[in-house]
Each structure stands twice: as C-alpha cells, then as structure tokens.
Amino acid sequence: MNVMESAAMGVKTRLNVNTIVKGQSVTKTFADGSVVALSGADFEIEKGSFVSLVGPSGCGKSTLLRLISGLIEPSSGSVNVKGENVVGPRDDVGLMFQKATLLEWRTALENVLLPTEVKRKITHDDEKRAYDLLKLVGLEDFVFSFPAQLSGGMQQRVALARLLQTGADILLLDEPFGALDEFTRERLNIELMRIVTEIEATTIFVTHNISEAIFLSDKVVVMTPRPGKIASVVEVPLERPRSPKMQTSVEFNKLVEHVRDLLGEF
Amino acid sequence: MVLGFRAFQGKHTKRIISHALIFIALLICWESASNFGLLDEYLYPKPSGIFHSFWVIYVKNASIWHHLWVTIGLVLLGFVGGSIAGVSLGSLVGFNPTMRRFLQPYIIVIEATPRIAVAPLLIAALGFGIQSKVAIIILVCFFAPFINTLSGVINVGNDKLELFKSLGATKRQILVKLVFPEALPTIMAGERLAMTAALSGALVAEFIQRDQGLGSLILLYSRNLNMSSAFACIFTLTVLGFFIFKGMEILDRRIAFWTYEAGRIQRSNKKARKTLNLLEVGHG
Questions:
Q1: Residue A49: inside a domain
Q2: What distance in Å separates the CA atoms of residue B233 and residue A120, rounded to the nearest whole number?
C-alpha cells in the first residue's frame, strides 16, 4: 500500500451515518497566506471512536484540532460537527491542552466548575457532579487543593475532570500528558481510555509519540509537515480493553514500524 | 522534631539577645561620645535627649499627635486616590491596544521624569492646602499601580485565554474570571510600592507647605536646632513606615493568597470544612 492509496482511504466522502466530525479540503494559512499550516485535509471521524493525530511539529495536527474546536476558522474548505458547519466553539466539543491551564486562585473543585459557571449559575448538583468527576480521575483527596499544591500529573487530572464537566461528547486533547513523566503518562492514558469508553465520547488525540497513538486509538492519522497535511490513516485492529502488555506484542510493533515508515519518508 | 525546634528556639533567643546587647552598646558609645565632646550635641543629639524629646512630644505636651494623624490621613487619602487612578487607567490602557500604542512614548517619558519635580507646579495650580498635598501624593504613587496593572492585564496567558474562548465565555466573563484575578498579584506588588511612595510624597508635600504634619514638624525642629525632637519625629516615621509595610504585606497575603503557601493551605482547609459535608450528602 503506498502513501497515496492509504491517504485516499481517509479521503472517501461516502455517506456514513456514524460520522460525527467531518472535514472537506480543509486548508489553513497563517501570516496572510505565506505559511500553510494545513493543506487540503479530508477526514471523517466515527462516533465513539478514538482517533490520534500523529506527526512531527509543523505537520498541522494542533491546527487541525483547533479548527475542529472552532477556535480558528479554515481559510478554505469546511469542518462539520454532527452535520453542522463549525463557526465557533461548541458546547458538545471540549478541548484540553498540554498545559493544565488551571486558574491558580481556584481550588480543584472550583476549576472543574468553570465550564458550568460560564454557562449559567452553578447549582448544588453541579458541585456534586464536579466532585464525582474529581473522584473519577482519582483526586477525591485533593478536591479543595489549589493547583500549586498539586503535582503535574494531578493538575492534568483536574484539567481532564474539567473537560468532562463540560458535558461534551467530542473530546479534543492536544498532547494532554506530553509534559509528564513516562509512568504517569501511561497511567493517565489508561484511565483516559477507561473514562472515554464509559461516557461513550468521541476522542481526537494529538501526539508525537507513535506508540502512544497506536496504544490508544482505533485509527491513527499520520500527518506530515511543510505544508501540513494528512498523509495516511492507519487502522489499529487491536482488541479492547487494552493493557500496557500489548505494547510488546508483534502485532503492535508491526503497526509502530508501519507508522514510522510512513513518517520516515519525510 | 521537638529537639530540632528547641534548638531553633534557643538559637533564636540567643540571636535576639546578642542584637539587643549590640544595640545597647551602640547607644552607650553614642551617649558617651557626646558627653566627652566628640560629637556636636547641637547637630547629633544624645540618645537620652531623644528619649526625653519622645516623652515631651508624646506625653508632656502631646504636640505630635495632631501632626501624626494629619500625615497618616494624608498618606491614606493620596494612596487611595493614586491607586484608583493607577489601576483604572492601567486597565483602560491595557485593554485598549490602540491607546497603548499611542500612549507608549508618553509613558516612557513620564517614567523617566522624577514626578516629584512637578510638585511646585501643582501647588501653583491648586493653591496651598490639602488639595495640592493630596495631588502631590497621587502624582508620586500613581505610577507603580498603573504600570503593574497595565502589564498584569496584557500578560494574561494565551493558553488560558484560549481555554475561556473554547468554553464560549463572554468578554465580561473573561475579564472578571480570568484577567482581573490573574493580574491581581502584580497589581498588589504595585500597591506595595505605591504605599511606600505615598509616605515619601506626604513628607515632601509637608516640607513644601510647612503648616502641619510630621514633615513640617521635622522642618520646624531642624530650623530651631531642636535636633532631639526632629530625631523623635524621624523615628516615629520609622515605626509608621514599618507598620505601613507590614499592613500592605498582610493585605497582599489576604488578597493574593494563592501566591503564598500558608495562604493556600489556610484557604484550602477552610473551604474543605465549609463544603465537604454538603458534597458528601447523598453519596454511598
């Protein structure tokens, strides 16, 4: 299978009732068109699937994520969520960053409540839900801690709880655990898989770590730089639930090699 | 732990005692230097003379109190005025990039000019009296809150702004829930500088308009070569300055509590006590 063919696999615009996010020749340029961050990206993301965007810096993966979130608009082409053109941030799309971006003057609980607070006056039920979410991410003993009292991993857990508090069923994660150590990252990744399966969310996950992408995803979107574009989409047929052990299997490593080859050409 | 604490305490007491001993020795040296004619008593009063003056101006004829209150009132008035002006102008310029670009060169010019030089002009414009005194203090203590508010407001993290935008927050919400609290520690640092500046400003204002206040009193005593009373006034200002400094620190610890470890622990415990029971209700 060459690159063009596999890219075409993702390109096919056949109608699919399960499609929740769809992009059609999405192009984004910066600095008056002189920098092409993303060039003609076509993609379809299935409801409830876990999709990773993987590639070196400058391949447009973060740009693609921001386009889906509605934070930026495409220079040409269109992004659709649930059949509607994305024109700005949506309530059903939630975003999480590499940095926890917590508000230092708020406790973990108050940080988790922020998305609700922006929408309406918070109720006791909202508080309870936020509390439950903090329990879900394993922070029941740190509900009233301020960010400066938490470790980096714990801060990302708060950010994850905050993302879930939005009630969004499409979760966009931009290298969410990229700044953490290997062990913490793996643990959080496993928890993330458990949680998104539980709430049946569609997850789009940006990373530059190939193994991480394959371990987590149903599909890995391989992207290449200058100009940023989708080079290929790789299906990951590994069974779920996944355990860290799988990463040593032959099948897993063949997939890693395949993605590495696809990236290696650039 | 206990042993360690004891050791620390012992060390602490020892240090205080040694400081006190050195201080007393200094006073004795000073006193005897005057007694033996090594120091001109007219210009450098003896410690005993200064203690006597303290007693006279605070107790015997209690003449300092009025001036002390006048100066404190002036400092507070000017500080509040300067703070309000600084913070509001700082936010205004901070939120308005066009205005910022336009005002930048003027801000640099003002920053380079010693503000106190304008004091006589203010008196000429506003006349003698409290209004020009307050104006002088506002002038000297306005700048720190202004610059700090300005930089606090424009240095809000891009990632945090993006978070608020992705949550669909309104401009007002971004301002109230993000920009202002984020800028608060920087603003408070400006306020602490402003308070110190306000005290100096008040003294300069009182040196110029020598009608009342500690500044005018120091001027009066120095002219009459009543140096021991002048020194008593200066030491009064030392104590006043110390309390002002401490007061601002306490205020900062309360307002920007999250920048202090003790503040975080305290708030965190308080909130846990207040809310935890409410949250646990209905949980198995």
A1: yes
A2: 57
